[in-house]
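Today's session is about reading a structure prediction critically. Students often jump straight to the picture, but the first step is always the sequence itself: look for stretches that repeat, for charged clusters, for runs of hydrophobic residues. Only then move on to the predicted structure, which in these notes is written as discrete structure tokens rather than atom positions. Here is the chain we will use throughout the hour.
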Amino acid sequence: MSDTKSYFDKHAHIDTYHNDPKMYNMVIDLIKRNYVKRGTRFLDLGCGDGTLIKSANSISVDFQFIGTDVSYEMIKTARHNLRGISVEFIVCDGFNLPIRNEIKFDFIHSAYVLHHLIGPTKGKSLDLVNTLLGILARTLSDKGILIIHEVYYDSYIIPSLTSTLVFYMLKFLNLLNLDMSPIIKEFQRGLEVNFMHTEELKRSLGHLGGKVQMVGKDPWNMPKFRRLLLLKEQGSVTFTYELNKEAALKK
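Below is the predicted structure for this chain, in token form.
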């Protein structure tokens, strides 16, 4: 995770990584429907600039918020944006949460984190995704909800075709130390991503053994060059995972 940390510490100021509250409308509606008691524990893994926590705080001031991010610079931005809101901030990755085992969360939210889990191959990267999801599921309370908000890339012919091309293209560019940002702003030097398709995300959550539901999809406009890479649709998708009795017993 050190490469990801270095990348975000360097690029935390770029507007691509600062979120519009409207992007979380589906997540906020979901939280409103399921918020039932005072003292609800809320973990925002990869909290970035703190936009989601700020929106959730408008529902109730009784949340016990913990915001984590691998980037110290992102945490600094979140502290500034969330002045006046009680939040415990931790600089860490999801594999090494410094939280006692007995502490469980009623809501765990993770937005745009999974595609930054990068191994030497796309398959190894997916293994990291599955490992992290397992850790988060074990950190849920018995009636807790895991909310995954993630980028999806659905391709023609093979659903993972475009994301595979992008994955290895970025590795090659970084190996050569080439900077694509003057041409494609979001491809800053050092970026590596492993975008998944919707069914891939659903399968990874399904392996946890609980109830998985797609809450909604938000397709984005696509640059023409991505269509040349046979990309059918891209956007953000929100899934929820809830423990069932069998999964809870295995925790």
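Discussion point for the tutorial: The longest helix spans residues 122-138.
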